[in-house]
């Protein structure tokens, strides 16, 4: 594969990365140019991302991938070409690849990849792309498109009168949102006798199909089924849970830690706004004149510019709360003294990469451990970026907003149902940038109204998070069918409250100002203090019940605006606790708003619907939601804390997964066939283990050669004599090494110190073969304590040059140590 010469101007090829290699495609093709669309609906589009992604996939399939090398195709297969067309509102384009003999187009690189690899493989076997045969289930179905040069998606910071597109007064309600992913599940194949009833695409047991089978068997009974969810044959599940005295409940430990923290404390897996550097002696405050958030110095009594905001992913939280105490309100604005360093007492934040770019995920390597004062929720992006031109935004901010409509559940723990309905109870829900867990209080998005302004007045204390399987069918129970039910939904159940007396369940539909209307009693203050987890919830105002307290309240996931934060935290964020604003707020009794970030969240979700290429094309008034199985899939990240995860983890191949399942059978006490010995030991992790080269490896001309590699035998024959190491003594080698040389002895006659590099010392050692031939130094005769005490002057003298190889005898023990060389008489 010769190095490429850039034939045309690219944005990525030849510009990003150290070394680019052009890969020439084979002549096999089935492309049909007659299927290309005509003008003016379509126009030719850049094929750069196709060339890069397909080349890397092909090279990786052939096993020719080299570290530090980037690949791209010289062209697409003959008959294939990329085109783009404008969306209805003209704010973005959809990119499609035409040329398939069926006349249909590919709307993503991932969908075309299996067909391309089938072509490059000489059309052997059956192609399993979406147009040729039954598609393989993949974690992501992308809708690839690129904006035209200089184009940006509409993302206004402020709503202006007469604005179109993203006007907050538009009638697009979240209740009209529709999920576009998770409608299908991986295809399955029936296994041999004794195997699990159904498996997923990785071969792991699908316990949910087992539950459906039991549910169907209990059809017609007086009650359905209820049972715990234990995926004991999944190594992923076992790595996070305790089972049969093996493992640790890591997820439950994390959930317990979260439940004991304030609501404003960032959680692992959340997207946030953060700044790597915070000016010393400054505070992030609201400029009352410009309403912009800047650094403020009380010493200088002036504002000193904006922070360098970027978006990031929380990958680690403070781990030593016992010594430094939990994160509290002072951490929001100040840097309290901590006993431990930030890598233990701070948050690890990784810059968020582009979820639409599967090639470049290097932004995650830009991370830092920072205190809480450097971090704000992602929902604050509008007010934090106020006054900063959009062309100065860090790219990670738009990357994070692209995932504002991603959703995934955490810790599925209980299955219950009565045919044909069933529910899977979960302990957490990632929605957009936030993590919601059971026990949290969430703000509910306001319902569509005819008024000019929308206000958030309702909240709910979450008691259940449910994945509902609606109208399961007998064919859904079959092990090789992709679905679990005809429809799926996610709902949250709990107790709801409101700040609007008109929405109290006792007078809904009545006029509270009428004389004949009996006003309902508010929720007692003591109940507010005990029912709500966030401290100071009563400071938001007077609370009323939104429904009959004897019943529950259920909302869809898209009605969740975000967590309810502590009132004091909201006042700090919005500037109400600043000096002048605080005095005015106290006089007027201004309460913190529930919807201070309402516009930012709704704008972010609209932006994600347009920008996320994994979503299908949506109608103008609808929100598109991407349902994922894991948080890593929802964010499409490659690494977390430097460890590859999800589809980017090359270790998760078929052989390794089979090996893991076999080991799990052994842990579970099952009988395993002798075939278990066919597996090779997996490479041991360097984390916490022995570091360095493998035993027997040689260094030749600065290159490490391992046993069995080409040239190892020749290197062994010409092995360079090793430098003599310090022989083992009964004396203290540490003290001896300290007495061999001093700073004064290393100085030359002029008093100037001389230094040598390792590369300069090695040749000087090689040039003295007499050292290698020198006999081993004579070891001093071991004497007992009595002999040493009786003969203090009987010290064996060595040869003149023996000091080159043996440290001088020094005090290496005490009178209590056996065999020590301590001689009191010598003093």
TrEMBL record:
InterPro entries cross-referenced by the UniProt entry: Clr2, Clr2_N, Tscrpt-silencing_Clr2_C
GO biological process: silent mating-type cassette heterochromatin formation
Any one of the GO CC terms: rDNA heterochromatin
Domain Cryptic loci regulator 2 C-terminal: residue ranges: 426-566
Residue ranges occupied by any Cryptic loci regulator 2 N-terminal domain in the UniProt entry: 71-132
Region (Disordered): 164-196, 728-827
Compositional bias per record (Polar residues), positions renumbered to this chain: 172-181
Leader sequence segment: none
Bias-annotated ranges (Acidic residues): 742-760, 793-803
Name of protein: Cryptic loci regulator 2 N-terminal domain-containing protein
